[in-house]
Design brief:
The chain has four helices and eight strands. 25% of the residues lie in helices and 33% in strands. The protein has helices at 9-19, 62-69, 106-120, 139-144, and strands at 6-7, 31-38, 44-52, 75-86, 90-100, 127-131, 151-154, 157-158.
């Protein structure tokens, strides 16, 4: 079901920036997390916030910041530039998350769910998650949704210690 909601041009440009990770770019300016939300009129999806590499404190856990964006009684969309390690290699992938808290107002959940398709049309990501409750955003649950390879580290930290 389509809601008729449009995606802002700013999001299209921002996603292209996140997708093109050039080694010549300033690493501190790299966008690691982008949060999107519906405007008050529910007619357009807009940028709500960004976290760049330079915004992170030394040793700060980026995954915990992503978790903090999934607020009680709210809905949001997140694109997360996730860095992780398997037993074999280090990887970086863009992940699209639709957070639709079970405790959000039913109308808001419905509008976010039906508007997701407009956003998905411009996103080219490896993983897509739809999450509704706090037990789904634990590190163990998160990495189990990322596929067949065993992930041992998320954002440089041992998955079992997060």
């Amino acid at each position: 079901m389509a809601s008729g909601v449009k995606v802002s041009d700013e999001i299209k440009s921002l996603f292209n920036t996140m997708k093109v990770n050039r080694s010549s770019d300033n690493a501190q300016e790299r966008i690691r997390v982008a949060e999107f939300a519906l405007n008050d009129a529910h007619t357009e999806i807009e940028v709500k916030g960004l976290i760049k590499e330079k915004d992170l404190e030394e040793g700060e856990n980026l995954f915990k910041k992503v978790q903090s964006l999934m607020r009680e009684r709210e809905c949001t969309y997140i694109v997360y530039d996730c860095h992780y390690e398997t037993n074999v290699t280090k990887k970086e992938d863009l992940i699209f998350i639709m957070w639709s808290c079970d405790n959000a107002k039913p109308k808001e959940r419905m509008v976010y769910s039906s508007s997701k398709s407009a956003l998905k049309k411009i996103l080219d990501v490896k993983f897509e998650f739809e999450m509704h409750a706090n037990d789904e955003i634990t590190p163990a649950s998160f990495v189990s949704n990322m596929g067949k390879e065993k992930i041992v580290k998320l954002e440089g930290l041992d998955v079992n210690e997060l």
